Amino acid sequence: xxxxxxxxxxxxxxxxxxxxxxxxxxxxxxxxxxxxxxxxxxxxxxxxxxxxxxxxxxxxxxxxxxxxxxxxxxxxxxxxxxxxxxxxxxxxxxxxxxxxxxxxxxxxxxxxxxxxxxxxxxxxxxxxxxxxxxxxxxxxxxxxxxxxxxxxxxxxxxxxxxxxxxxxxxxxxxxxxxxxxxxxxxxxxxxxxxxxxxxxxxxxxxxxxxxxxxxxxxxxxxxxxxxxxxxxxxxxxxxxxxxxxxxxxxxxxxxxxxxxxxxxxxxxxxxxxxxxxxxxxxxxxxxxxxxxxxxxxxxxxxxxxxxxxxxxxxxxxxxxxxxxxxxxxxxxxxxxxxxxxxxxxxxxxxxxxxxxxxxxxxxxxxxxxxxxxxxxxxxxxxxxxxxxxxxxxxxxxxxxxxxxxxxxxxxxxxxxxxxxxxxxxxxxxxxxxxxxxxxxxxxxxxxxxxxxxxxxxxxxxxxxxxxxxxxxxxxxxxxxxxxxxxxxxxxxxxxxxxxxxxxxxxxxxxxxxxxxxxxxxxxxxxxxxxxxxxxxxxxxxxxxxxxxxxxxxxxxxxxxxxxxxxxxxxxxxxxxxxxxxxxxxxxxxxxxxxxxxxxxxxxxxxxxxxxxxxxxxxxxxxxxxxxxxxxxxxxxxxxxxxxxxxxxxxxxxxxxxxxxxxxxxxxxxxxxxxxxxxxxxxxxxxxxxxxxxxxxxxxxxxxxxxxxxxxxxxxxxxxxxxxxxxxxxxxxxxxxxxxxxxxxxxxxxxxxxxxxxxxxxxxxxxxxxxxxxxxxxxxxxxxxxxxxxxxxxxxxxxxxxxxxxxxxxxxxxx
Length: 814
Ligand code: ADP
Ligand code: ASP
Ligand code: MG
Known about the structure:
The chain has an eight-stranded mixed β-sheet, sandwiched between helices. By secondary structure, the chain is an alpha/beta fold. The longest helix is centred in the N-terminal third of the chain and has 28 residues, at 81-108. Helix content is 42%, strand content 22%. It is elongated and about 115 Å long.
């Protein structure tokens, strides 16, 4: 004999009930008890109707009509026309009684818990009647039995306690007498010994099934629902969650107690004492194996079995000097709550006894506050205890696993994962059984917290990076193409799932929380909303994704201004925009500080030498204790390109234009030609070497005439280059005469930096620098005679994009 329970999610509509019938018919050789919930959503509607009636809101009758409509439609779809009339008239009669009860509540303007139980019981009474009639009409050997005649409870309406002695014996008597193979029963409803309708608590149909299974020593209890078992986390919030195939009663209880709604927590007790296994199955994917819950089988492989959460709690903190060493304070605190039937979900107490903090359901918070303040009125008046502090809009998140007690470091890992993702922890509790560690966090962080913990404990393999890309010109669009090309490789080889969630240019921005399909990002961006850097930032916060990275491919000071806000929210920043690192020293130092404080990497490798690993190399030198004494470098890919191609057969302005067209210059070429760009780069290298310098400390003797330096726009700039062609040609011939090449060199020594055009003789490290190459010579305490040299292509959209990409991967491995 077995007991099956089908939840509201399995019997919401006629076509789902047909699937339930197929499942039952497929196993009908065995005797079985089938417990059903109300049609999905009906219990909520009944409660809403009752509450509206009690508020004298006439709209309660609209809700009652909706309840009626759902049932009538279900009958009309399920039952053959010839058999409908008897069933319809019986259901209509029941609905009339329900109307009368609601009208009563409306007229009195009040609803008692007893009347509410009577009203909500109609959900299961109607569904079980309709389903049993359907089964019979389909030729199954089925009968309906009213659970209220079997399960007897006390009169704690809303969540009544079962009298097992009486209920077990009722079940036995019925079992002996009934002849039909299949007995259908309404879940959730019961009756008091006085004969009043009671209910077993929200989600209580699971419990009805467990009480019957326990009473009749069923072989198994099957809970059929809309997911394929108990998952490692709520599958509606964590896409990567997996069904757990085997789990102990204790672990399942812990998970359900901390919010895994798939099983109503009291369900386990009646079957646990008899050792009856519970199997959770999916009505809509019945070939999935589901989850088997049974006596503890040592599972040494999985330490953490699941992560669950209670979505809505409040914390109450009682504190004050009068609490220390005085016995009985906690007793009184708990007593007053328990007398009011307020259940305490979590407790923490500081070892100093100076404060005690408990978690209760959000809806109980106000009442609990009033009761506690009344109970301690004397101590509060005497300033020995402060009035209770209430914090609402919180949630509990819990790691659960039988084996957690024998593993060190789990809580460390849990809290550092939450910390890294800027999830603030308000309180922590560890169950005495050491089967769970729970933390109280803000409600809005739940999804992020669940997903980051899930990634940490269950997907060791794959880490998700969520990118927000601002600026999709030359560099940005190349970056997106590279990401698109590498997505599969990264997943397979580096175990990184890189998704682009947001893209913006100066006109529009677009987002997709599932990841923007990169094949058609241009089309989606064009259709996107109006761009705004602050709005973009707000969107990133709103998504509240773990491992979020903001990528700045612009040259805009306004965008650089927002980095600090990103970092303060533990969002990493990757940028090829040099403005932040080359502006005020204070600002640069602050960004570094905030990055450290909030555990959010701030990477800007491409600020110097595009994709070349210059800053990274420097960081390693410094970290390993080396000291930089001197840097000599050619750091402008664009100037190098210009002077490598400029000769007596060309014009200077023509070559500069070509450099711009080929993407080697900054959007404004004057930034390169004036030397400002190189000044910023040497400044950043000096700062990264540990020196405190500002841009004004750098000497720059420009080779450009004054009139070119003072132009107001790019066209005027080109015009002035054309006017001064002769001067540029002179620079060239002079160098040629000396057997030298022109190179724009940056130098840093003894704390002093300078930039300028130099004639480089043959044999010098810089002489043979091709195309847009960069070169950096680091002279350090360890590299004294021969410098450490980094050399290679130092400009161009493709290499810059790949440098940004490398920073993203660095964060992925962080
Ligand atoms: P039923 O109507 O069948 O009783 P419920 O809505 O009560 O169904 O419970 C099933 C739901 O429980 C799932 O749809 C899922 O959203 C939720 N749930 C929460 N945590 C978990 C978990 N850890 N594993 C599976 N489901 C979970
Ligand atoms: N119908 C009841 C509820 O929604 C009981 C259940 O579905 O388990 O809470
Ligand atoms: Mg349920």
